[in-house]
């Protein structure tokens, strides 16, 4: 059912007329684009206690303390803490019995003559739901995709008003709050690739499900969280670092999957192009792997990531059907080498031309995008149920693509995984899942011990004990 969407003016005016809300706006980097809406519609004296733009770095440091990067979560957090505490300190005595205080902040870098990258920034709000209540907090990371700086500033102002409005009137329904962030905008203009809820207003909120909502509701193509379930942003994790990404359904992660990951990590780490750096290892689940018909089973999603938490690795949730889209996204945040472990079945899919009919250059265009910036595929052998072993040396691809495969192998863009454990090749995740659900105790020898322990402790995937 379509929902009524208020204009940005209407949202700002409703907040201004809400006598319960009063607080501070602190904005760095793109002017006071959010506060401007509240002054423009009238009645701002009912909402705005103070606006500030500590644009100069020395001034910003003097107020909020030093930061390694000014457009960062660290800087945003210090802004929220300082401005909220100051607002409560100055206003609590005079109006604390009737007012729910808030502090809104953003720190942003837009495109300019000297900076040609996409605009991006951090935006957050610390707020009381009721007078005298302890504060809660929401933080998001946004990317402004317009080419002109003025358009990026306009988009920043709109999403800022949406963010504040959603916080005040939809905080009890975080999915609805997320849905409202792009009101009066489109995904071509703004991307929200991280959101984190914290505080007493969100005691029951799982930030891993919020990452799922960002992808499901098309606010971003990919969202990430840490091995402990904390919301993470791509730039924080990947900035100027080599990365190894393993895609899978992980229902559950089995011994051959872990063997593939560990052996490829060993080989990748020895690559001269890494210059001794340790790669960041990420596990990727695609939205398609979570779908049952048109629906996504949230409980099943949480079971998978609960099991993966035993490895302590970041988890990426994406809407990338093809590997070249994943590589293009990763390349926004790092120019260092990228490694992709995969099995023979997935390698065959990469050489299947039916997947590239929507690309003018077909499979060659896809490969051009996939193998840029030092990307390397690490291919794990396959053992079918008839006992036939398939490796990179005897894999069959369409005859007219054989020379292309050999070219990629000869130039070490595709390499076989060495020192793999042949004893685990006959393990299939679907069979392991059936053993778990049938309460057959033999399943746990096919799953890494740490993950088996989590499955048993939390009774995941139908385990009954």
Descriptive overview:
With 465 residues, the protein is α/β, with parallel strands linked by helices. The chain folds into two domains: 8-205, CinA-like (Maf protein, Alpha-Beta Complex); 236-458, HUPs (Rossmann fold, 3-Layer(aba) Sandwich). It has 16 helices and 18 strands. It has helices at 8-16, 33-40, 57-64, 73-95, 149-170, 174-180, 207-216, 234-238, 255-269, 298-308, 323-330, 344-350, 362-370, 402-410, 429-437, 449-458, and strands spanning 21-28, 48-52, 100-109, 119-127, 136-144, 190-198, 222-225, 231-232, 243-247, 280-286, 291-292, 295-296, 315-318, 338-343, 375-380, 382-383, 389-390, 414-416. The strands form four sheets. Strands 8-7-13-10-9-14-15-18 form an eight-stranded mixed β-sheet, with helices on both faces. The protein has a six-stranded mixed β-sheet with strand order 2-1-3-4-5-6, with helices on both faces. α9 links the parallel β9 and β10. α2 (33-40) packs across α5 (149-170), α5 (149-170) packs antiparallel against α6 and α11 (323-330) runs parallel beside α13. The longest helix is centred in the N-terminal third of the chain and has 23 residues, at 73-95. The mean pLDDT is 93.
List the helices and strands and how they pair.
Elements: H1 8-16, E1 21-28, H2 33-40, E2 48-52, H3 57-64, H4 73-95, E3 100-109, E4 119-127, E5 136-144, H5 149-170, H6 174-180, E6 190-198, H7 207-216, E7 222-225, E8 231-232, H8 234-238, E9 243-247, H9 255-269, E10 280-286, E11 291-292, E12 295-296, H10 298-308, E13 315-318, H11 323-330, E14 338-343, H12 344-350, H13 362-370, E15 375-380, E16 382-383, E17 389-390, H14 402-410, E18 414-416, H15 429-437, H16 449-458
Parallel strand pairs: 1-2, 1-3, 9-10, 9-14, 10-13, 14-15, 15-18
Antiparallel strand pairs: 3-4, 4-5, 5-6, 7-8, 7-13, 11-12, 16-17
